[in-house]
Structures are given as structure tokens and as C-alpha cells.
């Protein structure tokens, strides 16, 4: 609600500051989640709580990124990535590799939010899946437009480049 108020006041500086703080929170939670396997001191419930915390941090960050684009005109592209296990989605690892490659190329201009489809302990996962008609994996949603099944690098590149105001060398 506060961010909505700031955006209505067109307070770009405050929205951007909140956006940056959310980036730090998201990264901190991601690191804790990655370290889970190495430390193996958390039980299943703690892992689920950590996954849930990370999921909610991603959603807050995504919504804030959308608001920052709206208020400040930030030149970023958002991708939501829905994945599943290898049995249900043999191409998910390949899709993740391509998204990671593109993220490295575009850095802060490309934001990728990954959602584990089977983690339905958080009610927002089924809501997001329903909103974007996600029923097969992998599914990526580029700026609100779902793309079902594996998408190659060139297809994704062409799509994301169409959203940038300022073209980079990767979009030539």
C-alpha cells in the first residue's frame, strides 16, 4: 500500500530505493537457500519456510519492478519462469541454462523470477499458474505473455529485445 502511495505521488526516488532494498533481501534469501544443501542442518519444514520466504521475496521484487517501470520509466524486462522436476520437465534444465546466459548478458536490465511449480505450499503459485495459464513445463512469461514449452535463445532474445527502449548490442 505504501509503495502504491509513493507511485501515485510519482516519487521515483523512494520507489527506486525500496526496489534496491528488495534486491538485497532477495539475494540474501537466495544465498541461504543455496547453502541449504551444503549445510544440511535444516529440516524439511525449515526448507519449506525458506523456499516460501524466497518465493514471496521474488514476488515482492517482481511487483516492485513493475511499479518502478511504471513510475520511473526504468528500461527493464521481466520474465517469470515456471519449472518442474526432471521427470515432468526434461527441458527445464536446458531452459534455465538459457535464461541464466541471457541474465548474464543483460544484467540488471533483465529480471528473471523462477517458480517451482510443485511448491504449492504457497497459495500464490497456483494463483500465478492460473493467471498465466501454466499447465506445461517449462513455461516462461515475458512481460505478461506466456510461452509454453522450451524456448531457444534466439526466440527469447528477439522477444525481450522488442521491449527495450534503448537497444543494446545484444539486440542489434
H-E string: HHHEHEHEEH
Shape category: globular
State the end-to-end distance. Answer: 39 Å
**Derived structural class:** alpha+beta
Computed over alpha carbons, the radius of gyration is 17 Å
Largest sheet: 4 strands, mixed
Helix content: 55-70%
Number of strands: 4
The whole-number mean of residue pLDDT values reads 80
Instruction: Report the β-strand fraction as a percent range.
Output: 5-15%
Spatial order of strands in the largest sheet: 2-1-3-4
Number of helices: 6
**Uncertain stretches:** 5-9
Description:
With 172 residues, the chain is α+β, with helices and mostly antiparallel strands. 56% of the residues lie in helices and 13% in strands. It is built from six helices and four strands, in the order αααβαβαββα. It has a four-stranded mixed β-sheet with strand order 2-1-3-4, sandwiched between helices. It is globular and about 45 Å long.
